Amino acid sequence: MSIFQQFESLSQSLDGTLLYDTLHKILYATDASAYRIMPEAVALPKTTEDIVKLMHFAREHKISLTPRTAGTSLAGQTVGSGIVVDVSKHFTDIVSFDAAKKTITVQPGVIRDELNLYLKPHGLFFGPNTSTSSRCMIGGMVGNNSSGTTSIRYGVTRDKIVEIKAVLSDGSQVVFGELSSEAFIEKTKGDSLENAIYRKLYEELSVAATQEEIKKEFPKPEIHRRNTGYAVDILLKSDLFGGNEPTINVGKLLCGSEGTLAFTTEVTLKVDDLPPTNNVMVVAHFHTIQESLEAVVTAMKHHLYTCEMMDDTILNCTKTNREQAKNRFFIQGDPKAVIMMEVGSYVSMEDAEAQANALIADLELYQFGYALPKIYGSDIDKINELRKAGLGLLGSIVGDNKAADSIEDTAVELSDLPNYIADFSAMMARHGQEAIYYAHAGAGEIHLRPVLNLKTKEGVYQFRNIATEVAVLVKKYRGSLSGEHGDGIVRGEFLPFMIGEKNYDLLKRIKLAFDPYSVLNIGKIVNALKMDENLRFEPGREEPEIQTIQDFSDSMGILRLAEKCNGSGDCRKPASAGGTLCPSYRATKNEKDTTRARANALREYLTQSEKDNKFNHKELYEVFELCVSCKACASECPSNVDVASLKAEFLYQYQKANGFTIRNKIFANNAKLNKLGSVFPALTNFMVNQPLVKKGMGVAPKREVPLLAPKSFRKWLESNKSNKITDSFVNGQVFLFCDEFTNYYDVQVGIDAFELLTELGYEVLVVDHEESARAYISKGFLEEAKSIANKNVSIFAPIVTAEIPLIGIEPSAILTFRDEYLRLADDKVASEKLSKNCLTVEEFFKREIDAAKIHADQFSNDGKQIKIHGHCHQKSLSTIEATFAMLNLPKNNKVTIYNSGCCGMAGSFGYEKEHYDISMQMGEDTLFPKIRATESKVAIAAAGTSCRHQIYDGTNRKAQHPVTILRSCLK
Questions:
Q1: Phi first, then psi: what are they for 746, rounded to 5°?
Q2: 395 or 122, which is more confident?
Q3: Angle at which helices 193-205 and 501-514 cross, to 10°
Q4: Spatial distance between the Cα atoms of 259 and 142, rounded to a whole number of angstroms
Q5: pTM here?
């Protein structure tokens, strides 16, 4: 029987899913590490019985199982050549909660931050807090013994383990929890694999010489964050093995074992009381890295909740990230490094303030830091978000030289930190390197990253050479080569040196006891794969030159734009995390529908395909299909991977080879067809909504095709030339972009904008111009879009200025000038200059309000209650705050912003019959429930025409454009 037949048989026996097509193997070949290993299959089990069946299959066919949740591992733990078992989709239940005992039992696919949302009403939280907490899952945190920013106060994941339910390599299901010494001895008796494991641990760790070897070679016990091999040193605390604790918990050994000993199905955790809400953060600014780390020793004498460091490389990356640029408000001058130190008090804000002042006084006494600002309230959250984005931000570095994960997880005793860093800096200088520093400084853990080109043989040589020298340096200080990211592939090879050959042999024997069939995550921790093989990039390969119609020179080409994705998985965050990224993943919970998957698949085919047109692969069509081009990835992804631009280019190149469908031609040429249809709009409206016509166009039966207005906006303008509202244009002139949606569908919105601006003292100029090309871009008709971009740039560039800007009503249309035109237009200088003076109507109003040209006394005091849903392109390329400022101007208006993601319509996407259900699911994720909960007297503002249609279809509520609402507020 062939392997495919075997997989087919296995697939039919599972309640979950087994995937062994090329695309899914590509998507699971990488995680957030430097490695790429193609699996034979991917399993999405639904039940524990599925995992048992997979274990039996693996044992019978001598194939490895690699457990995986969010796939954000940095050491290569979640890639493997056998079956990758992804529990993130179905193992997501909170099983039980005991508030009195402060324990909670969860399945491994529960997201850390969602767990804490569940616990918050009870005044509790799970302390370990990784930078990926919005999408990382408890199973991965247990596998890596994760810790994060809060470990100096709340410990690491291992400290929280009460009990672990797991499937052993023979398929038996066991529970590892706290046992008395007597109960442990009792477990050694019997013939089961569980009994054999306890027996082996007892035999090995009872030997005095073994105990002494562990104590001598393992990292210093004072280093709380240590993930070196298996945590046998923790077991030595038991009175069974020379310690003084009367109980022992083998579950703590599983924590940090990276799925190499057992397959976790449930975890019971201890949780803590919520941290204090009276907080002050002191952000110390330093001229040198060395000074910043010397200051940590002084800072940690205080009662800190967090003590985190970032260097200037990461801070500089925030300047070019749309989301994080807003969060660097606290930076003073040009620091080489900053340390963020948070104090807190359960007593009062005054007490927290006193603690912060004492910390500052101590730092000033020793002359640490040139600036020591204090940060309060929600601004602390913004700084923490910036810090969390650090790893992803490093992916935004343009070019082939990237921050490499090879030495990024070292930890030493706090008192050794300054000397360790001095030695490290000297070593890096010898290599001609200046590393990137990103640290849990208060815990003595430094995420050091050399900048290497792993596409070259020299870069890979340095990858190994630097890692080897750092291992020697860490060993000198009896530190841990891994503080929280795990050994995996990148550090597993160094374990014999780090803990000694005798201890390493002990780990191998323990692995054999747990996994005699050699099926659990082979090649990690023991018998590890070589750290400089199986890399994501093939060293010395001649990189393909990919010709594109769009200009991707800002990333040095489309391939390097895709390669910016480092796998950090921000696109997997759930709706509860806020933001928009990524609507399709939120709807399906499939890795295939993440922006990470799209970047990975495109990178794979652009480098591995032997076709002349490397875009011509059905797998690429499949992975891009549900991308709604919301552009959230361009702002919320720290690495700035603009997948919407990648999709537009892919569609263009793919359709060049395979042809453009009739439906795509209809949607792309929508403006031209509307021009014809507007001659007899009533007839057109009747025809396009006939069931047979909709069926022929591939439109979902439940959708109503938008109706053409009786008269276009341009015709209204022509017929109302003489009906002047005023001759007094005290505020000057503006150009209004007559977009194709406003012109044919939303004419009243255009009228509202025109008359509102006129009444406020602006002369509104509308010239002849082309449509925006939005529909052409979304459907991959880039030659047509390029032509339109060139024409519009030539029309507007000579006449639009900062004083007389071009403003737009439909966000997706006007923002094309600021985004896609920069990639499409031939005249780069003109398009760049023009883009700076193209504003959404909301941005224009905010600008004029700030300039005191528009006043509250021009509007009624009656007051309206208004809730705003932001268009995705506004959120990514503009700001919703401008809409808030505009609608909040009338004195008694009460305006709030929905924390809503993508509405799901996305232009024509939601009208397409095969996408209707997924479109509505996207709306249900956050937007629809919030609108249904909104009182009928509250006005709903939505700038996007697609948003307004989707809101009506999903909730039967009519939303209005902000200019319509503001016009109704005029006196």
A1: -100, 50
A2: 122
A3: 160
A4: 9
A5: 0.95
Tell me, what DSSP letter sits at residue 375? Answer: E
d(CA 458, CA 454): 8
> Strands 374-375 and 278-286: what pairing?
antiparallel
Alpha-carbon span 441 to 411, nearest angstrom? 9
- Other beta carbons within 10 Å of 691: 9
Q: What is the pLDDT of residue 724?
A: 67
What is the distance between the alpha carbons of residues 948 and 710, in angstroms, rounded to a whole number? 19
Instruction: Give ∠ CA 775-781-782 in degrees, rounded to 5.
Output: 105
Q: What sign has the CA pseudo-torsion 164, 170, 173, 177?
A: negative
Using an 8 Å Cβ cutoff, are 289 and 421 in contact? Answer: yes
Sole residue written with tokens 């733990």: 77
CA-CA distance, 274 to 271, in Å (whole number)? 9
Q: How far is the C-alpha of 123 from the C-alpha of 119, rounded, in Å?
A: 7
**Residue showing tokens 């949780």:** 271
CB-based burial of residue 542 (10 Å sphere; 0-12 exposed, 13-18 middle, 19+ buried)? Answer: exposed
CA–CA gap between residue 854 and residue 732 (Å, rounded) = 12
Please tell me the distance from the alpha carbon of residue 285 to that of residue 371, in angstroms, as a whole number: 5
Q: What is the mean pLDDT of residues 288-295?
A: 93
Q: Which amino acid is at 549?
A: I
Structure tokens at 386: 């910036």
pLDDT for position 436: 86
Q: What is the secondary structure of 413-475 as a DSSP string?
A: -GGGHHHHHHHHHHHHHHTT---EEEEEGGGTEEEEE-EE-TTSHHHHHHHHHHHHHHHHHHH
Whether residue 726 has pLDDT greater than 80? no
Residue keyed to tokens 């935004």: 396
Asked whether residue 722 carries a pLDDT value surpassing 80, the answer given is no
Query: Residues for the chain: how many in total?
Result: 971
Cα separation, 770 vs 795, whole angstroms: 9
User: Residue 212: which residues within 8 A CB-CB, separation 6 or more?
Assistant: none
Main-chain phi, psi angles of 456, to 5 degrees:
-110, 150
Q: What is the rounded average pLDDT of the residues 804-821?
A: 98
* pLDDT tens per residue, range 450-480: 999 999 999 999 999 999 999 999 999 999 9
Q: What is the pLDDT of residue 283?
A: 97
